[in-house]
């Protein structure tokens, strides 16, 4: 009974991988501006302060007007600082993990000059959602050019043109990769106080691998293996060559955490830990690939997104290794104490991974 309570508490205080990503598409088609917002039903429930889950299409349609008012109409879409009106709004139940809200923005007369028609979107619903929530945004101009950006509580506003968009901003995806792994302060603390980042399971996974590694070369192999695996499945998944249900991916991630924790407790050789890191990277890459697929990016734009995000993840890992290095160095000076500390840490992380597996498998 004590072990069950401990398992529950460890998992509960670090509820990893929240449903913290939405998708916004804005496209100009002739004289119309089409908006499409995709959210997980649980996110929509938070926005309308509905305590129960929007578990089926019938329940969703009953709350459709409220959901539109709390999400699509809170995008604050404007042209030249004048608000645009939304018409032909609609809510569509895609599946149990996705709903789609659409509408047509009616603005003042659009001109053909790119210096005019400065559009802005500034959602004001971020404060109602977890601080880790991000809104991946794709802008398609009148010529079919695409630009992607990331909005969150720290950067809630975006200005753009719908005549001739600028080229893809690689730094946006680098920043996204760093934040995705939870390697920046704003993923740990905001105006509401301290909170665990969405990538806490990735961080714990790397920590267990690193503290049980034997040398600097082993550390380099582990971080490199994770990036290699992540890059492969992120690429093939984003281009639609492979697809697995989200629940299977998330459960596999949890199991990989349990596995590396077990190996660390048993103090197995660190020579092959890079293989475990590569395996985890393969699984994790599929998770974000599903997000990029939803944007339907052009091949070149998708390639840039892949490069930027992978660079960001690698930088995030370097930050984590840098922060852990003093601990690893001191551990080499006190091997016996460090061995016990490593075992205790691995047990706690293994319990958290076990809890996440049960929760994700049951769909809670």
Q: Structural class, from secondary structure content?
A: alpha+beta
Number of domains: 2
Number of strands: 12
The best one-word shape is: elongated
Summarize the structure.
This protein is α+β, with helices and mostly antiparallel strands. It folds into two domains: 2-14 and 199-362; 21-167, no CATH class. 51% of the residues lie in helices and 18% in strands.
Structure description:
This protein has 364 residues and is α+β, with helices and mostly antiparallel strands. The chain folds into two domains: 2-14 and 199-362; 21-167, no CATH class. The protein contains eleven helices and twelve strands. Strands 5-6-2-1-8-9 form a six-stranded mixed sheet, with helices on both faces. A four-stranded antiparallel sheet has the order 4-3-7-10, with no helix packed on it. A two-stranded antiparallel sheet has the order 11-12. Strand 5 and strand 6 form a beta hairpin. Helix 6 (200-211) packs antiparallel against helix 11 (335-362). The chain is elongated, with a radius of gyration of 22 Å.
List the helices and strands and how they pair.
Layout: H1 2-13, E1 21-29, E2 32-39, H2 41-47, H3 57-62, H4 64-70, E3 78-79, E4 82-83, E5 85-95, E6 98-106, E7 118-121, E8 134-140, E9 146-152, E10 158-161, H5 170-180, E11 189-190, E12 193-194, H6 200-211, H7 216-238, H8 246-265, H9 273-295, H10 299-333, H11 335-362
Parallel strand pairs: 1-8
Antiparallel strand pairs: 1-2, 2-6, 3-4, 3-7, 5-6, 7-10, 8-9, 11-12
Which terms would index this structure?
364 residues; alpha+beta; 2 domains; 6-stranded mixed beta sheet; 4-stranded antiparallel beta sheet; 11 helices; disordered N terminus
């Amino acid at each position: 009974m004590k072990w069950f309570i401990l398992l529950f508490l460890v998992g509960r205080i670090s509820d990893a991988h929240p449903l913290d990503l939405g998708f916004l598409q804005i496209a100009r088609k002739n004289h119309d501006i089409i908006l499409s917002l995709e959210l997980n039903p649980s996110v929509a429930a938070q926005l309308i302060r509905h305590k129960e889950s929007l578990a089926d299409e019938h329940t969703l349609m009953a709350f459709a007007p409220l959901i539109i008012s709390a999400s699509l109409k809170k995008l604050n879409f404007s042209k030249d600082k004048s608000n645009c009106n939304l018409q032909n709004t609609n809510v569509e139940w895609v599946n149990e993990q996705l709903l789609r809200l659409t509408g047509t923005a009616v603005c003042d007369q659009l001109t053909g000059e790119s210096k005019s028609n400065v559009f802005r979107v500034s959602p004001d619903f971020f404060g109602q959602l977890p601080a880790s929530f991000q809104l991946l945004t794709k802008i398609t101009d009148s010529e079919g050019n695409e630009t992607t950006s990331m909005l969150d509580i720290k950067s809630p506003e975006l200005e753009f043109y719908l005549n001739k968009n600028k080229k893809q901003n690689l730094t946006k995806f680098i920043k996204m990769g760093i934040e995705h792994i939870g390697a920046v302060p704003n993923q740990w603390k905001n105006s509401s106080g301290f909170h665990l980042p969405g990538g806490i399971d990735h961080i714990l996974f790397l920590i267990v691998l690193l503290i049980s590694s034997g040398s600097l070369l082993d550390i380099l192999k582990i971080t490199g293996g994770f990036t290699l695996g992540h890059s492969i499945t992120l690429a093939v998944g984003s281009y639609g060559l492979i697809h697995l249900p989200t629940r299977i991916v998330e459960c596999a991630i949890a199991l990989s955490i349990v596995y590396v924790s077990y190996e660390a407790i048993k103090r197995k050789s660190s020579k092959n830990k890079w293989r475990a890191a590569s395996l985890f990277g393969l699984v994790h890459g599929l998770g974000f690939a599903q997000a990029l697929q939803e944007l339907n990016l052009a091949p070149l734009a998708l390639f840039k997104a892949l490069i930027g995000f992978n660079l960001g993840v690698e930088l995030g890992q370097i930050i984590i290794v840098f922060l852990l290095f003093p601990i690893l160095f001191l551990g080499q000076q006190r091997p016996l104490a460090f061995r016990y500390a490593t075992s205790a840490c691995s047990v706690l992380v293994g319990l958290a991974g076990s809890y996440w597996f049960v929760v994700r498998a049951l769909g809670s």
